[in-house]
Amino acid sequence: MTQFSPDDHLAFIGKILSLYTHEQKNHLAIINESAGLLGDMIEFSETLKSLPETGQILDIIKSIDAQIKRSSEMAKALNSFGHRMDTALCLLSVNDCVKEVLALLHRALAQKRITIEGDYAADMAAITGSPSTLQLLVFKAVTRVAEENAHINIKTFNTDDSAIISITPGIPVDFMEDSDYFKPMRAVTINGREINIIIPLK
User: Fold this and answer.
1) Which of 26, 37, 83, 155 would bridge with 166, disulfide CB 3.0–4.6 Å?
2) How far is it between the farthest Cα atoms of the chain?
């Protein structure tokens, strides 16, 4: 009998997300082209430009364009997030993984009036690991400190043997430190003020 692992489950979810968001981006592109065409028709038609409602219609088209851009960014982040689950291990960018999680958390953080300040090292080493596991660890750390009106600082940097994601303010993360699920990655609290997610380079 074929045995399915948690990685198979993640790969299935990732594949469905990727297919769905790819189709969603196609629909958004069609809406964007239609809105642009409508704007061009008004711009180049003296009859339409003379209508009293023309200014209001153009404002609506601009609003549609802005929403399409925002929706496209969300679809892109979700599509990339889905692809992270395609394989259990791959060469990954720590910075990209963190930024994707924050993009997907944007609405939840905005509702709590939480601001994020990121300082991402340009020379972060590419690592081999599970991107979806790393993103789950980042998600758990960020949502644990996401209190109303909080200001969260996220910094990435390298040490001799690890890639580090530093999150302040920090709280105890004992429930993550001994979890086999996240190994070889781990999260520790530094002086009760900072969460460090540690990803070994080897």
Assistant:
1) 155
2) 72
Is residue 1 situated within a structural domain? no
Interaxial angle between packed helices 94-104 and 54-83, expressed in degrees from 0 to 180 and rounded to the nearest 10: 130
Question: How many domains does the chain divide into?
Answer: 2
* Residue numbers of the domain that contains 156: 90-200
Give me the helices (H) in the chain, please: 6-43, 46-49, 54-83, 94-104, 106-111, 131-145, 174-177
Q: Are residues 151 and 54 in the same domain?
A: no
**Do 64 and 117 share a domain, yes or no?**
no
**Is residue 180 classed exposed, middle or buried when 0-12, 13-18 and 19+ CB atoms within 10 A define those classes?**
exposed
At 76-122, the pLDDT tens digits run 888 888 877 777 777 888 999 899 889 888 888 888 999 999 999 99
Angle, alpha carbons 138-140-145 (nearest 5°): 100
From the number of C-beta atoms within 10 Å of its C-beta (0-12, 13-18, 19+), residue 197 rates as: buried
CATH no. for residue 112? 3.30.565.10
Same domain, 73 and 110: no
pTM: 0.69
Size of the chain, expressed as the number of residues it contains = 202
Claim to verify: residue 103 and residue 196 sit in the same structural domain:
yes
**pLDDT (tens digit, 9 = 90+) per residue, 31-86?**
989 888 888 888 888 777 787 888 888 888 889 988 898 888 888 888 888 877 77
